[in-house]
Amino acid sequence: MTDQKKIGEGKSAFVTGGSKGIGYAVAQALAGAGYNVTITSRNEDEVTGAAAQIGHGIRGVMCDVRDAKALQEEIDVHTGIFGGLDVLFVNAGVGRFSNVKDMSIEDWDTVLETNLSGAFYTVKAALPALTESAKNGGGYIFLLSSLAGKNPFAGGAAYNASKFGMNGLSEVLMLDLRGDDIKVTQFMPGSVATYFNGHTPSDADAWKIQPEDIAQLTIDLLEMPRRTLPSRVEVRPSRPDKK
Questions:
Q1: Chain mean position to CA 93
Q2: CB–CB of 148/163 below 8 Å?
Q3: Which tens digit of pLDDT belongs to each residue from 120-145?
Q4: CATH class of the region 12-235
Q5: Which of 16, 84, 131, 185 has the highest count of CB atoms within 10 angstroms of its CB?
Q6: Under 8 Å CB-to-CB from 138, ≥6 apart: which residues?
Q7: For residue 55, how far is the Cα from the chain centroid?
């Protein structure tokens, strides 16, 4: 196995929604592998605190992925500081859950604009830098979808729609970009022990996928030969909780 301390030497990564949960774990793993990393969040205190906790090589910036202009500005700053962009991890997401008849237009818009439009804006802003990186053997996009992107559930209209859309976007990106030597992988995890939707992880979540598991998958795929592309990775708990 390649030495993780060397695979990111001289390279950089941009992670949205990186202040906690999966984004934080991925950023921490990338930093440990030698990457210079920018993480974003809508909460300035949380993202600067997370960056400080991870330590050297991490920038924490406040940025709402629904704001395409702000995203472009932050990615341009990142490439200016680090000389390019090699890895993009699209992770920012929200959930609003209710029966369709009770769901507000505001909640619907928030979920779709964050989870789907925000993903498109992020990739669009990063593509020029990733294209340059691909010329030198880099250029990798990871998008965090969900098993909810193929398994609808009651009360999940907005979230399911956003993740079904994310799956479609991810697959089209893979087809559009592989000719430019940019790799695209979508992760579709099941239950993960994160802070999503106001949840606080505890010992009761030990059966779930841990954020560090997704981070390990990310590093493993970055180590994979360029000739091979796992374009969709479904991830489930090995032993689901028995209710």
A1: 9
A2: yes
A3: 999 999 999 999 999 999 999 999 99
A4: alpha beta
A5: 16
A6: 11, 84, 86, 87, 130
A7: 20
